[in-house]
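Wait, mind explaining this?

_____
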Amino acid sequence: MKLKKLIPELITGIIDAGFDKESREIQGKCIPQIKSGSDLFIVAPADSGKSTAVLIGVIQQLKAAFEEAPRAIIMAATKEKAFELENQFEILARRTDLRVFTVFDQGLIQYQKNMIYEGLDVLIGTPKRLSELVKINGIPLTKIKMFVVDDADILTIDKHILIYRVADVIVKSQFIIVGRVWHRHFEKLSQRIMKNPKMVKLDNK
């Protein structure tokens, strides 16, 4: 990846994390597309670096804390994956003032709602809890500019309705769908919530 095209604070975070030592193909392909604002499908094998590429793209797009309401939502398949993403985000964004918070099914929903309304930039969460929070107006959605669905090939098997429940109430956003393989529901997602999506795909080697 070409570090010089990223904000200085993010470059430092990437170097601190050691990611500059081995530029991954998926990052070089994804990050320019994310920066362009295009809706995007990312399909690549496990451990290819696609989640890291997306997090770098989110940090680059948001740059710094600006609004009290979240500007990016990242949906993760499980609580464990959600906190993994939060941990990696904090490492990459440590030199910025971006704020991140994670919500999950077993947590106290009122506490999570209160934390969201205290102000943050990136909200990470499981599908069911994000859907529940949307239902009770627990997430201010007027400033959302990015909606990412990670492990979408897993989620679309039985939780595609929850993806729609969140996506359908977002007025205008860049939608990024990430999966290990192409799933038949991706076409439905494309038709319902995305606009002229582009594709980044890496095959298993």
The chain has one domain: 3-201. Residues 75 and 129 are 10 Å apart (CA to CA). Residues 3-201 form a domain with the Rossmann fold fold (CATH 3.40.50.300). DSSP finds nine helices and seven strands in the chain.
